Amino acid sequence: MRILVVNAGSSSVKLRLLDANQVVGSADLAAGSHGFDVDAMRDEVSDWPAPDAIGHRIVHGGTRFTSPVRVNAEVRSALAALTELAPLHQPKSIAGLDAVTELFPDTPSVACFDTAFHATLPAEASTYPIPRPWRDDFRIRRYGFHGLSHAYGSRRAAAMLGRPIGDLRIVSCHLGAGASLAAVAGGRSIDTTMGFTPLDGLVMSTRSGAIDPGIVLWLLQHGGLSVAEVERALEHESGLSAFGGTGDMRAVVAAAESGGDDAALAIAVYVHRLAAAIGSMTASLGGLDALLFTGGVGEHSPLIRARTTDRLRFLGIEIDDARNLDASGDTNISAVGSAVATLVIEAREDLQIARDVVALIG
User: 136-173: b or e for each residue (b if 16 or more CB lie within 10 Å)?
Assistant: First the structure.
């Protein structure tokens, strides 16, 4: 099957045409303020072979969509109704879906969800200790995100190690502009760092990650800030960017190496939170067999991998410095004799989506 994978982000849409898992067409297009340019998409794909099916990355599936689903009018309406749960991401996902459907109206489309991989979270991991009406009426629970990346990375880790995924306890670290961890036991997510929204958890490029909720209450009650101002700051002016104006880890590392105190502090805070969260995920698993790094930072920052794993030696994690520095593509960077395998894995959400499409429609 030829499968067109549509990965619509906040500012771009990535189009990948896969044929037997080989990329035969690739395009990254910017998104305008009102959605995606259908004409620009048409120009890009006009010379590509026609797809047999289309797979869409959808950020939020709520509690209803816990596995891939074929898109029809009723499903599309249900996805739009979930916008309140992911107001920054869901509209872009739907805009991408609508734009590609306009190009290929007769081609079957499948929605694949970032939240679906975490539908296996046990109640103790997914439930917040808040009043029951909040949990029941407002559907507040830990949903988790980056599920497509965590699912692919876990399967790829098992293949690289030559072991059945059912036998492995894995902590998957998706570190990009957004960042999250997943504790994966036997191929199933049992814990994760992102929660009700993608704002929770690790320090990210421009997002704060987990903070004391009392900070928000204090800023609203005593700081004179509006809800919109607090939201904008936590989503777009926090994380790495709060220490010097840039959320690009490459620029932060370069500034730190040049003696920048703010940049050095940004890295220290990032690594402190990351290492602590990996320890927490390991506790959920009851031990650790493999640690994997994926995403832009996870794949391309030897410094972050080295500093993080150095804090985790007590778990039996040892990496080979030369392998870490030279890692490219899918690489095992474990030191000889390390009790835990440490892997760098290229993020391939497109392959996971294609796999889900084939599994659903054959």
Answer: eeeebbbbbbbbbbbbbbbbbbbebbeeebeebbbbbb
What are the strands of the beta sheet with 290-294, ordered from one edge?
Answer: 188-192, 179-185, 169-175, 290-294, 341-344, 331-332
Q: Which two tokens stand for residue 260?
A: 């920048």
Residue among 114, 191, 289, 356 flagged as catalytic: 114
Query: What pLDDT score was predicted for residue 299?
Result: 98
pLDDT mean by block of 10 residues, the chain; 362 residues? 88 89 92 74 91 96 95 95 86 88 95 97 98 96 97 98 98 97 98 96 97 98 97 96 95 97 98 98 98 97 98 98 97 98 97 96 86
Strand order in the sheet with 2-8: 22-30, 12-19, 2-8, 53-58, 109-113, 69-70
User: Is 114 a residue of the active site?
Assistant: yes
d(CA 280, CA 295): 20
Distance CA 26, CA 314 (A): 43
User: What was the pLDDT predicted at 34?
Assistant: 61
Contacting residues for 43 by C-beta, under 8 A, at least 6 apart: none
What lies within 8 Å, CB to CB, of 161 at 6+ separation is: 168, 290, 332, 341, 343
- The model carries a pTM of 0.95
Confidence at residue 111, expressed as pLDDT on a 0 to 100 scale: 97
Quick one: pLDDT at residue 11? 66
Name the nearest CA neighbour of 347 among 16, 120, 92: 16
Closest CA to 150 of 281, 15, 303: 281
Cα–Cα separations (whole angstroms), residue 253 to 72, 206, 250, 276: 46, 16, 5, 21
How far, in Å, CA of 63 to CA of 85, rounded? 11
